[in-house]
Amino acid sequence: MDAQEIDQKTVAKETGLSPTTVGKLYRGHFNRIDNHTVMSLCRFFELKTISDLIEIQWEDEDFKVATGGES
Asked: How many domains does the chain divide into?
């Protein structure tokens, strides 16, 4: 959004997603994202893969939880 200078209200209006949903996604404050949301955003931004939409930033604690212990 920043690179294309598009604000959250525009994304919400053009995708049909709620402004609250767009705001939470923008800030990374979500636990799950449904297929409809992914498809709507990918279509709007003309993206071909979900990896172009979402970047995961791992922390050391994430690996400890996933493996059940120290890494």
From this structure: 1
The answer to the question of residue 25 being in a domain is: yes
Nearest alpha-carbon partner for 1 in 45, 40, 50: 45
> What's the CA gap between 11 and 60, in Å, rounded?
33
62 in any annotated domain: no
CA-only gyration radius of the chain, Å: 15
Q: Report if residue 69 sits inside a domain.
A: no
Task: Write out the chain's pLDDT in tens, 71 residues.
Answer: 888 899 999 999 999 999 999 999 999 888 899 999 999 999 999 999 988 888 777 888 777 755 555 54
